[in-house]
Every structure is written in structure tokens, then in C-alpha cells.
Design brief:
The complex is a heterodimer of chains A (417) and B (87). In chain A, 29% of the residues lie in helices and 24% in strands. With 417 residues, chain A is of the alpha/beta class. Chain B is built from 1 helix and 6 strands.
Chain lengths: 417, 87
């Protein structure tokens, strides 16, 4: 059985040489039938299972994952959490996630190392400055913390940032969200897995979904590499591979899969204590607890399933970072990697029933899925348990593409995804 | 840096190219096309993993063409002119 993590258990285990820690979650074998099967053991899938059990009392739930937990985009992002969006629908969604993140360590009894160090979206051109002012206003109107900063405040807060007037992308202002920050990405997956497991959810790794069981046109389960699993409803939270998986149910999605890459430098002493996103260079950066500068930029320009990322974009991202922080030119690049993200035309997620009965979608998060994990889980769980939308997820239904009610955040908040 | 073959200019640097989309038949006649059908044409894709035939634009010569790539490895399989429409 799992133990409750506390200062006291750490002390006791420390004295005993850390030999008594039990496994954080069981290695489950799939049963022939459940109420719900969730495909995808990343943050969104595990959170969905947890909220099905906690919010709806539905514990006959199985999460299947083809690799290992949190090995996809949950383990590959730059760990930023924020809710600085433009449209009321998006703010409701992302701020729900941020509010849940704020109580998550206590809720899960697992330290997700949330650090609300603040996020600054920096503008460079007069047009971007106007967008920044508009986003700050929109956020305030939507009840989210936001401040509009001028160049002097940025210089004062970020002395390491370029001060030279010759700089190509000199900041002229920005939007500051004090509640934004970072969280430990692996801990979010592990925390949800452990908490869901404690409530009775089965989590099965190395179990790939190979097809869907269909009866009278409705989905009644999943064919997997470990046999058939029947279920009342199946949730799909597989990010960049959503199109691949849904093709097995003859469902097409409005998604293009791209590689998004990120990089870290060698670790250095603390020098960057907030999260940055620069609209001029398209680069975002923060410093990890280990001291590495964690940074990334735009999508690769080529639709792809290669989990690596190509050199031209890497060059743009690195040169953008060096334009912002010339001093970082001394750093060595330690690691570079890529994840496959599911990009939709309006840069907003898809949460809702699939066009096949019994199948439910949580995808289309593109480059911004990590920050939304608690909300994605809450909303998909609500949808599967009740059969109907939560008011927050309704605008993100797949039907918005035929009704034309798109929520175009790429245009609305000018955010680089 | 990857090299892409433009059928008009030959092998060129990947940064000169822009991905346009998957080739699809436009539903006609416009008056009889439903919203669902139109959004299918506009937004919904196969997004294949593996061999994928796509429309690309070579931004330096401004010609578009068809390129087949393996999206699981990024390897280019071939590129071709658009088939000439029967008149």
C-alpha cells in the first residue's frame, strides 16, 4: 500500500536509510472490462482518470500507455504554467488549470514543485506593444491577474537582459502575470498516477491501443497489445498521435502534427528568476531549479512525427535567446529534444465527444498542453462521467470547425503557437 | 540542414520552402456544399505518419508542387509537378 508523504515520513525514512518507501503506484494488468478506458498515460490522461475517481466516484477506470508514464509531451515541455490568454473562453479554461495547479501538491499529496515566479510576455514592435496592452486589459476584464509593463520596468526586473540600443529585438513593454511560473513536469504525471492508483484506477504501461471495439457503430472498448479491454466509454488523450489513433476509428481530425523542440544549457548559478516569452524573437526561457536555462521557440516548419526537431529552427531559437541575453553566449548547450504536438487551425484545444459514439477527445493542445493538464483532466472526466459538456469545455467542442465559432488564440493573444 | 527538390529549380535549402497542405478535392458546387462538408475540406486532414503526399510552395520561385515525404523520418521520397488538368 502507498504511504502518505509528509515531513515525518521523510524523517523516518531518512533515519532508516530510505529502504522502506513503497512503490508509488501498482503495476496493474488490464482486466477484461472497465467502466472507462483512457488511452494515453501522459498528464491529461492520468488527470482524467484521477478526476473520474475523485470528482465522480468512478473508480473502474484503466489508463493504458504504450510507453512509460509521462514519456511523451508531458516529459518534453518547458514546464511553464500560465493563463495569459485573450478570449474569455480560453481564460476560463487555462485559469481553471492554473487554480487547480495552485492546490495540486496538497490535493495529490505529491510535491509538483509549483513555482509562481511570474511570467513576462515581452513585446518588441509598436504593434506587439498594442497587442500586449490589449491582452493585459482582456485578462483583467476576465478576472485574471495581469499588469502592463513599460521598458523601464523590464530593465529594472531583468538586468541581465540586453540593454544595448543596438540590440535587434530591444523590449518596448510587456504583460506581466505574477501567478504564472513553472511546475515539475514529471511530478505532475507521477502525482496524478499515484493519486489515481490510490483511488483504485489501474495504470498499465507498455500497452498500446491497436484498434477500437465497435458494436452497432458505437465504440465499446479498445484492442490493445495486451488484449481486448471493454468499456462504456473511451477517452483519447494522445496529443501528437491523435490523428493516427483516431484513423483506426475512421475519424479525421483538424490536426497537423509538428515537432516542437526545446533545449537546456549547462547549469549555472541563479540569474533568471522569472519566465519570459519574447514576441520579437519568439523565444521563451526560464531557469530550472538545477540552474539550467530551459528554452524553446516556435514550431518546426515541417509537419513531422520525428521526435527531434530540425537544425534551422534550433538556430533561430538559439540566436533569439542570445539576442535577448548576450551573456548566455558563454553557456554550452547541454541537451536538445523534440516532442510531437497536435496543432489545430485556431490554436485552441479540442475537448468533446468524437464523431463516433462512446469515444471522447482531449487533444489539439498544440504547444501548450502542459499548463492545462488539471483542466483537461477535469473537463474530460466530466464529459465521460456525465455524457455532457462542462460549461468551460463546451466552446472547445469539435463542432466549432463547422459552426465557424473558432477561438483563434494565435491571432488573439499573439502567443507563439 | 535538409535539401528539398523543387521540380522547377532542383535541389534547394529547406528554409526556402513552405508547407501548404494536403491535396484535397474541393467540394462542388459551392451552393450544395454543407457546413460539415466544407469544414472537412478546409480543416480536416489525414495527418499521416509515414509516406505523405503534400502541397509545398517554393518561396523563391513562387511555384507550388507536390512532394512526397516520410513524416516518420523526414526523408524526401520525391517531388512532382501538379498533374495537368484535363481540358
Amino acid at each position: 500500500m502507498t504511504v502518505r508523504y509528509s515531513a515525518l515520513t521523510i524523517l523516518r525514512e531518512g533515519l532508516g536509510g530510505h529502504k522502506g518507501w513503497p512503490q508509488a503506484w501498482r503495476k496493474a494488468k488490464p482486466k477484461p472490462a472497465y467502466d472507462f478506458v483512457i488511452i494515453g498515460g501522459g498528464g491529461h490522461g492520468l488527470a482524467t482518470a484521477y478526476y473520474l475517481a475523485r470528482n465522480h466516484g468512478r473508480t473502474r477506470v484503466c489508463v493504458i500507455e504504450k510507453g512509460w508514464l509521462g514519456g511523451g509531451n508531458t516529459g518534453r515541455n518547458t514546464t511553464v504554467v500560465r493563463s495569459n490568454y485573450f478570449y474569455p473562453e480560453s481564460v476560463a479554461l487555462y485559469d481553471l488549470a492554473l487554480r487547480l495547479y495552485e492546490g495540486l501538491s496538497r490535493d495529490l499529496n505529491f510535491n509538483v514543485m509549483l513555482s509562481q515566479r511570474g511570467i513576462l510576455n515581452i513585446s518588441h514592435t509598436p504593434a506587439q506593444l498594442e497587442i500586449a496592452a490589449r491582452v493585459a486589459n482582456a485578462m483583467q476584464l476576465n478576472g485574471v491577474d495581469a499588469e502592463f509593463w513599460g521598458p523601464d520596468e523590464i530593465r529594472k526586473r531583468l538586468p541581465l537582459m540586453t540593454q544595448s540600443l543596438d540590440s535587434r529585438y530591444l523590449p518596448n513593454g510587456g504583460v506581466w502575470q505574477p501567478r504564472g511560473g513553472t511546475a515539475r513536469h514529471d511530478a505532475v504525471a507521477w502525482g496524478y498516477a499515484r493519486a489515481a492508483d490510490r483511488l483504485g484506477v489501474d495504470i498499465v504501461e507498455n500497452c498500446e491501443a491497436t484498434g477500437f471495439l465497435t458494436q452497432n457503430g458505437a465504440c465499446v472498448g479498445v484492442e490493445t497489445s495486451q488484449g481486448e479491454i471493454r468499456a462504456e466509454a473511451v477517452g483519447v488523450a494522445v496529443a501528437g498521435h491523435s490523428s493516427q489513433l483516431m484513423a483506426k476509428a475512421d475519424v479525421k481530425l483538424p490536426i497537423h502534427s509538428y515537432a516542437l523542440q526545446a533545449m537546456v544549457s549547462e547549469p549555472v548559478k541563479p540569474c533568471l528568476d522569472i519566465v519570459l516569452l519574447h514576441l520579437g524573437t519568439g523565444v521563451y526561457a526560464s531557469q530550472s531549479d538545477k540552474g539550467e536555462i530551459v528554452f524553446g521557440g516556435g514550431l518546426d516548419r515541417i509537419p513531422s512525427y520525428t521526435q527531434r526537431g530540425n537544425p534551422p529552427v534550433q538556430q533561430i531559437v538559439v540566436s533569439g535567446l542570445l539576442d535577448m541575453f548576450p551573456a548566455f553566449g558563454q553557456l554550452k548547450l547541454m541537451r536538445q529534444w523534440g516532442g510531437i504536438v497536435d496543432v489545430v487551425p485556431d490554436s485552441s484545444p479540442i475537448i468533446g465527444p468524437a464523431p463516433k459514439q462512446g469515444l471522447f477527445l482531449n487533444c489539439g493542445w498544440g504547444t501548450g498542453g502542459f499548463k492545462a493538464i488539471p483542466a483537461g483532466g477535469t473537463l474530460l472526466a466530466h464529459l465521460m462521467a456525465t455524457g455532457s459538456h462542462h460549461p468551460i469545455s463546451r466552446p472547445f467542442d469539435l463542432d466549432r470547425f463547422s459552426s465557424g465559432r473558432l477561438i483563434d488564440e494565435a491571432a488573439g493573444s499573439g502567443i507563439a503557437h | 540542414m535538409q535539401i528539398f527538390p523543387c521540380p522547377f529549380c532542383g535541389p534547394r535549402d529547406e528554409t526556402e520552402f513552405h508547407y501548404v497542405g494536403e491535396p484535397k478535392a474541393r467540394p462542388e458546387p459551392a451552393g450544395a456544399v454543407s457546413d460539415v462538408e466544407w469544414s472537412g475540406y478546409l480543416h480536416f486532414n489525414a495527418n499521416s505518419k509515414g509516406a505523405s503526399r503534400e502541397i509545398w510552395l517554393h518561396m523563391t520561385c513562387l511555384e507550388s508542387f507536390l512532394m512526397t515525404r516520410d513524416t516518420a523520418t523526414n526523408a524526401v521520397i520525391g517531388s512532382e509537378f501538379f498533374p495537368r488538368a484535363a481540358s
